[in-house]
Amino acid sequence: MDGLECSEIGLHYVMDKFLRVDAEYYQKNNLLLESTLKSVEGKTISAHAGMTDCSAFYPAITRYYSNDRNDIPFLRVNEIIDGLVVISDKTVFLPKKILEDNHKTIALAYPGDIIIAKGGNTLAKVGLITDEYSVYATCRDVIILRTGNMTDLNKFYLWAYLHGTFGQKLMWRSASQTGQPHLTLRAIDGIHVPEYSTTLQEAIERLYNQSVCLKQKSQKEYNDANEVLKKVLSMPKRDAQAISVKKLSDSFKKAGRLDAEYYQPKYEQYVNSLNTSDTVFSLCKVHDENFEPMERESYPYIELANVGAEGEIVNVEIVPGNELPTRARRKVKAGQVIVSSIEGSLQSCALVQPEYDGALCSTGFYVLSSDSINSETLLVLFKSEPIQALMKQRCSGTILMGITKDEFLSMPLPRIADETQEQIASIVRQAFSLRQQSEQLLDYAKRAVELAIEQGEDAAMAWLKEKGGKG
Q1: Kind and range of the H or E run holding 42
Q2: How many Cβ atoms sit within 10 Å of the Cβ of residue 36?
Q3: In CA terms, which of 23, 53, 68, 100 is 20 to 30 Å from 431?
Q4: Nearest Cα to 377, choosing from 344, 340, 419, 411?
Q5: Beta strand pairing status for 298-302 and 360-362?
Q6: pLDDT tens profile 256-311
Q7: Global confidence as pTM
Q8: How far is Cα 420 from Cα 384, in angstroms, rounded to an integer?
Q9: How far is residue 87 from each of residues 146, 229, 308, 325, measured CA to CA in Å?
């Protein structure tokens, strides 16, 4: 039997901690964390003139969501990926008029601000807003930390601190425990930030900027791979025809579908442009064998939210077998491609990298491999316009729309020349390599701050120099 843990706390100490009387707040590891940080000179975020803000309870706005990138991006928790705020094909946008009408309830964020997830299983996720857009709208689930007026504190250093181990532990500790744990503006204001020289802080800034540069190069490489595929796929010309006339007997024979959407001329144009007699069934193998996880073992679990815009897998949690949902029943191997079967998330396709070999994924994915098409080309192909359109056409259902296995397997799929496949594979591999380098630099930034706290600034700078991250 494990021994009991006890911490004796004076009432004056409790009074100083916003009257926190929950025992977890005073666990020995939390007191040790506080003691470690207090031994390093520093001030709170509010003392550095950092300001917090968040959206209030605005009215329902989902009907105004758009994909128009000329509108204002609406930041939700899913836009925070590995410490970055990422605008992707999953991001929704809001017209400026809606923000003007709700200016008292929808808070705006700006480049250089930091956003922090308020609660749930994403509590304390941190992202630094880039200058991709001049202004961003934010949902109620994130806190904005405004950095524009901060003194003696580099926003990149603050981001690395909050994104790293010490900042994350502090935020989890300070989360309100009434109902579902959640962060408050006051809790963020009161976070103690250790102070170091501008030399270290600027080194962190350089690492961040180098990381963003590599990520942008990675995105360009992926787009180049998509362009290579486009050149060999005959994209259909837009037809002004708005109707399609089909015999009832043909509808039942070929598809068994009576919904008008299914017979829109554009889908037939996509099929004709592919000019293939092959299908997913003839070119691919679908791995849909059920895997029963062991209760006492832990597994990386890939969900729809873990799939990035360029086919990467991110933010995967390790989950004990006895806590996995019943849909976690597909075991994947490196080199396989996972494709979402759920309408609204069909773009969520990813290439399984070696680090996720043996991971589990949701049954909401089809797991594919092919002897005729290499994995990289298969990824780009399933994210391409024609295949995405045909997948959308074949979705059915009432509450949760999706593409059934029979519809998926019978979908047309073109063969791609070996030379083109090799070209695409080379470009996609380079894109993944650049993305990994980008992520590594962000990890260096976090680790440097942690080392400074644990061993001193000199040790952190020496480690950065060794890693080549100083210049």
Answers
A1: strand 42-44
A2: 13
A3: 68
A4: 419
A5: parallel
A6: 565 667 778 888 999 999 999 999 999 999 999 999 999 999 999 999 989 988 99
A7: 0.83
A8: 15
A9: 20, 23, 10, 29
